[in-house]
């Protein structure tokens, strides 16, 4: 007796019956019952069946066996049969149609065997998502090109792998969902060729560990419900870029979200939430609103010319403020930091405040950037770039300005102003002549409106600019970007705490 080798899937079973000369039986019986069984994929045929005079054994699960042998909808219902096997687990039918040999009709002897190995899969969420990732990879990178869910079953490179993932029969409902999901992925998500689909370990582990360690988010799905991650490019490089972005003590989850939004738009990293679907699936992107830095390193591009200070005397003094303007081209926004005394009416000095505003599309209210935290970020980036928000360290009168040992006329004449008014660190200003600026500073000190606060605030703002000028361009971009997100921390709505993702549903 030839050894049975069960490997034929539904489409292969039909093909084998037809090859052995039972064309009419294949079209009348097999086409119908495979399509209409409760679990059309929960059957498997004997690949060693080659003799049409012998039994063709097909294993089915208990539900299918019950339907085949007892349902009035079964094409085998009422046909002559014989029950065999321990516990009546086999039912053999002799079906006549079309096959003639030596003048006599030859029946197809088909034996259905109930098998516990073909029970419905009890695969959990992890296995189901692994199945999605595998299907997506086949659809995108291997051009699998199925035109129906049944074709997935017929695909020799696809279905056996799904069986391994599910550790058993793959439910029809999930095959239908996989086909619908793959259609949406190709037509709506449109990831680049050779993207990787990551569910276990890899990027999923990296991002889960990062938000737990950095932001104290122990349950990833409370921040971003992505079930799989689509990665296009060098994963190690992408992870390093993300780590660099959130380094330091004062970064917030919003900064990470902004980077991931930009990476999503650039099709480098796309988190996808998967919901089981029917025959039709839909797609939408969520939490994609919010500022997205302009540059490739996911920081805003802020040259020194975006730093502004004006010295023209209006009346008998100049304005106390200095400004930083950040042109966010990708979002059609301008963020402006006005740096001035926290209490402009104070007598004999006041510490600075960094007061940001936003103009342009998608305007969102900004909060104040805590200057102490701004200074901490600055020191973290470059230890020599030290700014202390302490008005007592700066002169409050012309006399004190002339004689102050550390932050007086000599410091601004020889160090601060030459740096900020010339060369590649030049700021935007109305007066570039250092001598004239010093002259105007002294005049402003002597204004009755100064009150020991106005001009001192200007000096503090200029010193802050000078400290920032010590940074390399990439460091400066990182620093100003951090300032913007620090300002948003207390003012943006809760939605900004959620990460960006696409949803297939």
The parts where pLDDT drops under 50 for at least 5 residues are 99-103, 490-495
Number of strands: 17
Distance between the termini: 51 Å
Radius of gyration: 36 Å
- Main structural class: alpha+beta
Kindly list the characteristics that best describe this protein.
single chain; 505 residues; alpha+beta; 3 domains; 6-stranded mixed sheet; 5-stranded mixed sheet; 16 helices; 17 strands; 16% strand; rod-shaped
Task: Give a verbal description of the structure.
There is one protein chain. This protein has 505 residues and is α+β, with helices and mostly antiparallel strands. The protein has three domains: 6-118, no CATH class; 125-189; 304-488, no CATH class. The protein is 38% helix and 16% strand. The strands form four sheets. A six-stranded mixed β-sheet has the order 1-2-3-8-5-4. Strand 6 and strand 7 (104-105) form a beta hairpin. Helix 13 crosses helix 15. The longest helix has 18 residues, at 172-189.
SSE layout:
Elements: E1 6-8, H1 10-19, H2 23-36, E2 43-46, E3 56-60, H3 62-70, E4 81-84, E5 90-95, E6 100-101, E7 104-105, E8 108-114, H4 125-141, H5 149-154, H6 159-166, H7 172-189, E9 196-198, H8 202-215, E10 228-231, H9 235-245, H10 253-265, E11 269-274, E12 283-286, E13 307-308, E14 322-328, E15 333-341, E16 352-360, H11 371-381, H12 398-403, H13 409-421, H14 434-445, H15 454-469, H16 473-488, E17 501-504
Parallel strand pairs: 3-8, 11-17
Antiparallel strand pairs: 1-2, 2-3, 4-5, 5-8, 6-7, 9-10, 10-11, 12-17, 13-14, 14-15, 15-16
């Amino acid at each position: 007796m030839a050894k049975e080798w069960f490997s034929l899937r539904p489409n292969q079973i039909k093909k084998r019956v037809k090859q052995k000369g039972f064309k009419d039986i294949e079209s009348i019986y097999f086409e119908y019952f495979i399509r209409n069984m409760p679990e059309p994929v929960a059957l498997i045929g004997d690949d060693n069946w080659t003799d049409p005079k012998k039994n063709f054994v097909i294993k089915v699960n208990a539900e299918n066996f019950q339907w085949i042998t007892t349902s009035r909808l079964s094409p085998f219902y009422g046909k002559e049969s014989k029950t065999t096997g321990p516990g009546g687990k086999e039912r053999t039918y002799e079906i006549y149609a079309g096959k003639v040999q030596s003048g006599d009709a030859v029946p197809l002897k088909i034996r259905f065997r109930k098998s516990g190995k073909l029970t419905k899969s009890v695969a959990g969420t992890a296995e189901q998502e692994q199945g999605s990732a595998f299907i997506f990879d086949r659809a995108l990178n291997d051009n699998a090109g199925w035109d129906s869910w049944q074709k997935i079953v017929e695909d020799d490179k696809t279905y056996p792998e799904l069986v391994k993932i599910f550790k058993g029969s793959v439910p029809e409902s999930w095959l239908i969902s996989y086909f619908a999901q793959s259609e949406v992925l190709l037509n709506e998500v449109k990831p680049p060729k050779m993207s990787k689909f990551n569910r276990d370990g890899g990027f999923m582990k990296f991002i889960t560990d990062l938000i737990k360690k950095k932001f104290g988010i122990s349950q990833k799905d409370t921040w971003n419900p992505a079930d799989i991650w689509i990665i296009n490019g060098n994963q190690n490089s992408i992870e390093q870029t993300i780590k660099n972005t959130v380094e330091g003590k004062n970064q917030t989850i919003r900064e990470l979200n902004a980077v991931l939004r930009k990476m999503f738009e650039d099709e480098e990293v796309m988190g996808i939430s998967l919901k089981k679907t029917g025959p039709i699936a839909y797609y939408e992107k969520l939490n994609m609103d919010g500022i997205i830095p302009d540059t490739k390193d996911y920081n805003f591009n802020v040259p020194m010319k975006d730093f502004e200070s004006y010295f023209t005397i209006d009346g008998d003094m100049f304005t106390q403020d200095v400004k930083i303007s950040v042109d966010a081209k990708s979002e059609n926004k301008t963020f402006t930091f006005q740096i001035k005394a926290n209490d402009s009416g104070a007598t004999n000095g006041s510490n600075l405040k960094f007061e940001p505003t936003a103009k342009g599309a998608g305007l969102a209210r900004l909060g104040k950037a805590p200057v102490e935290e701004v200074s901490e970020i600055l020191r973290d980036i470059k230890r020599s770039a030290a700014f202390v928000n302490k008005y007592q360290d700066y002169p409050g009168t012309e006399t004190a300005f002339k004689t102050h040992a550390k932050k007086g006329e000599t410091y601004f004449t020889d160090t601060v102003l030459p740096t900020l008014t010339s060369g590649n660190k030049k700021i935007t200003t109305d007066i570039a002549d250092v001598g004239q600026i010093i002259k105007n500073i002294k005049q402003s000190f002597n204004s009755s409106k100064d009150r020991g606060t106005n001009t001192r605030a200007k000096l503090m703002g200029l010193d802050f600019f000078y400290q920032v000028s010590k940074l390399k361009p990439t460091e400066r971009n990182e620093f100003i970007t951090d300032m913007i997100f620090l300002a948003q921390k207390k003012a943006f709505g809760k939605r900004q705490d959620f990460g960006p993702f696409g949803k297939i549903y």
